[in-house]
Design goal:
single chain; five-stranded parallel β-sheet; 34% helix
Length: 146
């Protein structure tokens, strides 16, 4: 059963926008988002197919610009842009991430776009490719890092 209201996030944790977040609980994007949210991270859904819907208790935005504007009104910003999009769809996401001054672009398992990564790095962003945020977080906890 989907969460209807978002848990209270830990304000010390980075805010994560998930581009391509699905409304379907069986999809990997939903599972990663739920896992991170349950551990205190604020998850911001970005998916033009579900604009205005609530996913995991958070309002879904069409793009990173709209999400960043809504968060700015709350005195917050997006720190990490987690991408569940095809590799060829990553360059415009990186462009938006740069414009909203995100700190990191994270491409999930199987997603690699070297040109987009180079652009993000050239703009001072951290880049992670072909890694799962949930798995990396769980491993960090397992090894006492996170």
């Amino acid at each position: 059963m989907p969460i209807t209201s978002a848990p209270v996030p830990n304000p010390a944790y980075p805010v994560i926008a998930i581009v391509g977040l699905s409304t379907k609980p069986d999809r990997p994007s939903f599972g990663v988002a739920r896992y991170m949210q349950e551990r205190g991270y604020r998850i911001i859904p970005v998916n033009p197919m579900h604009v205005g819907a609530h996913i995991l208790g958070e309002h879904c935005h069409a793009n990173l610009f709209d999400a960043a504007k809504a968060l700015a009104a709350e005195g917050q910003k997006i720190d990490i842009v987690n991408c569940f999009r095809k590799a060829e769809d990553i360059p415009p996401v990186v462009g938006e991430a740069i414009m909203i001054d995100a700190r990191c672009v994270w491409m999930q398992l199987g997603i690699v776009n070297e040109a987009a990564a180079a652009k993000a790095r050239a703009n001072g962003m951290q880049v992670v490719m072909d890694r799962c945020l949930k798995i990396e977080h769980a491993l960090g906890n397992l090894h006492g890092i996170l």
